[in-house]
Design goal:
Two copies of one chain form a homodimer. Chain A is mostly helical and 194 residues long. Helices cover 71% and strands 0% of the residues of chain A. Chain A has one domain: Tetracycline Repressor, domain 2 (Orthogonal Bundle). The interface between A and B is large, with 47 and 46 residues. The structure holds a DNA duplex (18 and 18 nucleotides).
DNA sequence: GTCTATACGACGATAGAC
DNA sequence: GTCTATCGTCGTATAGAC
């Protein structure tokens, strides 16, 4: 087909840059990581890197997108009940990426920011996924309140993001415990926490 | 006494800088606001500004500190029940400052960051305040779960921060509604939401 | 298409004169 | 206490080799 020869190498380099950027941001955080450092890691010049990405924020956006995608794929082949625990556990292992996520989300509040579209799509999508999960639970287990699933979904996602922010600056908080508490509040007193 | 003459003017200028910085960050957000712009607003040069603050992050830390202090004072002279609503409502009025708060919290995860100490003190303090509030409620109104107040406090603070982050990037979420839902989950079904 | 070299403007920060 | 001058680094833009 068409995509042969020269394209192959380019795509490989592009992937290499994305993974190097992920590594460096995970290790050294959002601040203090320059494009020149990422380029050097890939044995390439800065403009060489810019050939693949329009801007620094474009690179960061695509790093987050890749991250989301691999996380999503891994989630799909997992048993239902404790999805959120996995998210939390991964976050706890990579504080640099949690910081990257939070920093980008804040910066993306500007509609002109390259990552704005990404987050603007991400949250409604996440809310609808969590809503579906809650609805399915609702069929078997009665909920403890009459708050509609849509609103509970926004609430649960807020807990995940909020406890991560709290944990970033104060590692003594127990993210997993907090999420378990949040889920327990939704269920009847006798329901086992799964 | 000692604090006279030269000191007086310095303190006034210092205050002026802090308030100008608050204004500009509130209006133009964390990104795209330079110290030169703040200095210009105060009819001063950049090094003139740097005489009062060690670094940009030092300035931002003190802006947040001042913000926290004025908010704290205003909260104290307010009737008990709906404190959190006021916090949310203020946030909704000043997205630039919410963005500043979130960005700083993320950056302050680095122990070497000037704002690290501020946040590291702030969260335990907030948790103990919310814990006290929950304990006082517990005396009159029975709670809906047996989760200890300390853990519920961390959870509630996570909801506040998390829903603000979600709102930053997707203004369609209703922060006040979410907080009301969170509080409602703690109370028995018949308790009116105050 | 892939990449290097070079340069630009703006940033935060510092040194030293007044 | 405030300035001018300057530094090193950042993200970005362009010209052009292969």
């Amino acid at each position: 087909m068409a995509k042969r020869g020269p394209y192959e190498k380019g795509e490989a380099k592009r992937k290499e840059i994305l993974e190097a950027a992920l590594d460096i941001f995970a290790a050294e955080g959002y601040r203090g990581t320059s494009l020149r450092k990422v380029a050097a890691r890939c044995n390439i010049s800065l403009p060489g890197l810019m050939h693949y990405f329009d801007s620094k924020e474009d690179l960061l956006t695509q790093v987050l997108r890749m991250r989301d995608e691999t996380a999503r794929v891994r989630q799909e082949q997992r048993t239902e009940p404790d999805r959120y625990r996995e998210i939390i556990r991964e976050g706890a292992a990579t504080p640099g990426l949690v910081e990257l996520f939070v920093s980008m989300a804040a910066a993306a509040s500007d509609p002109a920011h390259p990552a704005h579209a990404h987050f603007a799509e991400r949250y409604p999508l996440m809310r609808s996924q969590v809503t579906d999960w809650l609805r399915r639970r609702l069929d078997t287990t009665p909920m403890r309140s009459d708050i509609p699933p849509e609103r509970l979904a926004a609430l649960l996602i807020a807990v995940v993001d909020g406890i991560q922010l709290q944990w970033l600056v104060d590692r003594s908080v127990d993210m997993e415990q907090t999420m378990d508490d949040a889920v327990a509040l939704l269920l009847p007193p006798d329901a086992a926490g799964d």
